Recover the amino acids of this structure.
């Protein structure tokens, strides 16, 4: 018994005030908070500090170190994964037993378990968004060389991302990282996902008193189909002639429209001969717009939120007539100081303290767009904001 070994990343509490002598399920501490969660094979608790909210998961020592390192490496490559904060080693325990180690992650703000979305009444309206986001997360992981090994409804969170949904990976204890994944590894990971999702849907049906035959047991197969379509789109090579180099820009633009960064471009002679070349573009993370927004303004946002906010920035740039690189940089600063930050302050005053203010800003932008389209004129922010308040802070309309 005693003080465990703790490896904590900077900017977080030291967690020394927690009762590490006892299993976390036996804790009775003032920092404990109750948060909706999925079904997990290991004990999980949530604790609140002034620095934020954190999730603590107990598991055997080697698994704890493995999950922490996997999440640490993944979080440097892609956005939608839980951020690892620390790893705990109860060195006085046998390393193979539950609780010999623990992983601490930052709680994902404004996010909820996928199981909650699937079993809730809103799933019908959000079905396509949910499945696309789920498939998109798997594509991002596989592009970065991550074999998940246990993708399930309980290991994925969702949060609203402008007019879409963002899916977030929160469990990496079974994951393995490679330089690249083979088709066989990707297929195996997808098969595991299909089986786990079917099991999750059967479990939800049983908990709600529904016959298993009425459960959506093919949900995982639907995700797999969307995954395959997106993967094919991203891996598609083009063959161009000497006067078709513009198609390289078009291809990169298409990837950017899907939210993905384009990294290296490889040009190789067409095996069929002639003067044509095969263009293969290495696809990066799905953070093109969020990276661009951060570079211009230092604002952190999810991918689709960033896309909407960049449109607002471009709208104000056009009004200012900014064309040069210097002019655009100045316009971005002026927009943040004169437009974005004052509106965020007004949003904070009108929304509940735990509301996602960046999402609220996107909701407001959408409402302003609807007003402008209906009235066939530019609507000033003050007028649009008051209308948004009067209408009860509407968000995006969701189509089945």
């Amino acid at each position: 018994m005693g003080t465990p070994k703790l490896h904590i990343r900077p900017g977080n509490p030291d967690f020394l005030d927690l009762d590490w002598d006892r299993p976390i399920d036996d804790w009775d501490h003032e920092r404990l908070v109750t948060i909706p969660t999925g079904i997990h094979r290991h004990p999980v608790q949530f604790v609140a500090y002034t620095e934020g909210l954190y999730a603590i998961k107990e598991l055997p020592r080697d698994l704890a170190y493995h999950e922490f390192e996997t999440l640490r490496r993944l979080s440097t490559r892609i956005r939608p994964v839980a951020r690892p904060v620390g790893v705990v080693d109860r060195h006085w325990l046998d390393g193979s037993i539950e609780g010999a180690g623990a992983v601490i992650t930052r709680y994902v703000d404004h996010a909820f378990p996928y199981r909650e979305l699937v079993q809730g009444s809103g799933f019908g309206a959000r079905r396509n968004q949910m499945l696309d986001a789920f498939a998109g997360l798997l594509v991002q992981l596989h592009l970065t060389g991550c074999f998940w090994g246990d993708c399930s409804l309980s290991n994925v969170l969702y949060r609203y991302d402008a007019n879409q949904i963002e899916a977030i990976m929160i469990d990496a204890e079974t994951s393995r990282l490679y330089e690249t994944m083979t088709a066989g590894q990707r297929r195996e990971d997808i098969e595991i996902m299909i089986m786990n999702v079917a099991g999750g849907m059967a479990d939800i049906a049983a908990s709600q008193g529904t016959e298993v035959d009425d459960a959506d047991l093919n949900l995982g197969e639907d995700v797999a189909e969307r995954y395959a379509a997106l993967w094919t789109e991203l891996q598609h090579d083009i063959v161009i002639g000497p006067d078709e180099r513009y198609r390289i820009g078009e291809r990169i633009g298409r990837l950017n429209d899907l939210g993905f960064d384009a990294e290296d471009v490889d040009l190789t002679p067409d095996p069929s001969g002639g003067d044509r070349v095969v263009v293969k573009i290495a696809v990066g993370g799905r953070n093109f717009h969020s990276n661009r927004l951060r570079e211009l303004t230092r604002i952190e946002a999810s991918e689709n939120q960033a896309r909407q906010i960049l449109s607002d920035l471009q709208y104000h740039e056009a009004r200012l007539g900014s064309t040069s690189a210097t002019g655009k940089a100045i316009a971005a600063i002026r927009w943040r100081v004169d437009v974005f930050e004052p509106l965020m302050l007004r949003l904070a005053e009108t929304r509940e303290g735990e509301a996602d203010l960046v999402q609220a800003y996107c909701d407001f932008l959408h409402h302003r767009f609807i007003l402008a389209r209906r009235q066939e004129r530019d609507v000033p922010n003050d007028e649009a904001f008051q209308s948004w308040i009067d209408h009860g802070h509407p968000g995006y309309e969701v189509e089945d």
About this structure: The chain has eleven helices and 14 strands. The first strand starts at residue 5 and ends at 8. The mean pLDDT is 88. Residues 12 and 109 are 16 Å apart (CA to CA).
